[in-house]
Design a protein that fits this description.
Length: about 450
């Protein structure tokens, strides 16, 4: 009997630590992963130091290609950040209960992505102090200011949404996790702000969360629309289109859905969350990915059909370079490997299982990043008013190692933020809002409900 009780207690303790996202000891695998990310970040910081010291001359950006992979990366991160609105707002407001275990993951991805988007745009400016001049000499008629305002707004709302959803679980960490460092105990205590799961607190939290979930929707649509306006208000082939707004929004939804599937698989495997992120969730998310991909495919066809039919002037040169020129391999990989084939595979149920869905989503994400590269670079190399007497290097764009190092460093920052957040805070929402007030204990009880 005593042995059975000890076994049950061991199970409860293990279950509690799994759901709270904590282990007694940080694994070697985790330490190596963080060390790898930090190494990439250090290399990127060195490249950025060189960029600040010598200027943007260390990049391949010139008078023709004045926007490089920094802006491609910016647009990509902005797109990924829409996953927070997709899961936390649209599905939640539609009362899709199956998406509840994914809300925390999506909110963490959204916050991490929008932080990296804000940082990479400052990197693109060359001198970071120029960002303060943008604020100081605010010109509301400039689309850049619109982007700064909407990104800041979206970042604040996304952060508050994440914090509010974490609040009950932070209090749980404060009261249940005893064998942790003092700094972590103090952090939980400060962040929990005296939360006790009181009915009045729950009612206020529900009300504020619902208001923010509704508010973030127009802001999320606006951030992608305004980002598209940065292109549409610049006179370049491929950008002079009223289609860019919904085109960017639909592409962001698709990329965000693929990102959450990748995160689901990795967390399910490495954090042993198979009981909480089930095959049912992959079934639902892959179905959603197919729907979003079909919408994006429609906008892709709509975007290229008109210019390809007319083939006039630099628009024709731009289309030719994409379809059969030097960018053709990348373009057809995006269309086939990142869009059409994923749709074709995910129609069939065997490919909606966790591992196939994970692999397919990687191709979708790769296609999404290459697509942002194709949106930015080829258009800039075909201006309507060519510059006379420029160096031959101005007509081509091959990113330097500094650009690649800084770009990869931005991805490392993105992954590091996610890694740290899911280590410190529960990645799966634990307590229901209707549960009784928190009582101090060392482990979760078997009858404590999850938020799904």
């Amino acid at each position: 009997m005593k042995q059975a009780d000890q076994k049950q207690q061991k199970y409860r303790t293990k279950r509690g630590k799994t759901l709270l996202g904590h282990n007694v000891n940080t694994s070697l695998k985790y330490k190596l992963w963080v060390a790898f990310l930090l190494l990439v970040i250090v290399i990127g910081l060195y490249a950025y130091y060189l960029q600040i010291k010598y200027g943007l001359i260390v990049t391949a950006m010139r008078d023709y290609t004045s926007w490089g992979i920094y802006i491609s990366n910016f647009v990509f991160f902005v797109a990924i950040s829409l996953v927070g609105s997709l899961i936390s707002s649209i599905l939640k407001l539609n009362k899709n209960e199956w998406s509840r275990p994914l809300t925390r993951i999506s909110e963490i991805i959204a916050v991490s992505a929008i932080i990296c988007a804000a940082v990479i745009i400052i990197v693109d400016m060359g001198r970071p102090d120029r960002f303060f001049y943008v604020i100081k000499h605010l010109r509301i008629q400039s689309p850049i200011i619109w982007d700064v305002i909407i990104i800041t707004t979206y970042l604040v709302i996304s952060f508050v949404l994440l914090y509010l959803s974490l609040l009950p679980d932070i209090a749980l960490c404060r009261d249940r996790l005893t064998a942790i460092p003092k700094w972590k105990k103090k952090m939980y205590k400060i962040l929990a702000i005296n939360w006790s799961n009181h009915p009045e607190q729950i009612a206020i939290l529900k009300k504020i969360t619902r208001i923010l979930a509704i508010t973030v929707l127009p802001v999320a649509f606006a951030i992608h629309t305004i980002t598209s306006w940065l292109f549409a208000t610049t006179w370049r082939p491929g950008w002079d289109s009223t289609n860019l707004g919904p085109y960017f929004v639909s592409g962001a939804f698709m990329a965000g859905a693929a990102a959450i599937i990748i995160a689901m698989y990795l967390l399910r495997v490495h954090l042993n969350l198979k009981k909480y992120i089930t095959e049912h969730h992959f079934e639902k998310m892959t179905r959603l990915l197919v729907l979003l991909s079909l919408v994006y495919l429609y906008f892709n066809i709509n975007e290229y059909l008109g210019p390809a039919f007319k083939m006039v002037g630099v628009e024709g040169e731009h289309i030719t370079e994409l379809f059969t020129g030097k960018y053709a391999p990348m373009y057809w990989f995006v269309q086939l490997g990142g869009l059409i084939l994923p749709i074709a595979f995910l129609i069939f149920k065997p490919f909606r299982k966790p591992l196939p869905a994970f692999i397919i989503s990687i191709f979708v994400i790769l296609g999404a990043w290459f697509k942002r590269f194709l949106i930015v670079i080829p258009s800039l190399q075909h201006p309507y008013l060519p510059i006379q007497g420029v160096d031959e290097s101005y007509l081509h764009y091959i990113p330097t190692w500094e650009e690649w190092a800084i770009t990869l460093s931005s991805f490392a920052w993105f992954l590091l933020i996610i890694t740290v957040l899911i280590k410190i805070f529960p990645v799966i929402p634990i307590l229901k809002a209707e549960t009784k007030p928190i009582v101090k204990s060392n482990s979760l009880q078997d009858d404590e409900p999850l938020l799904f």
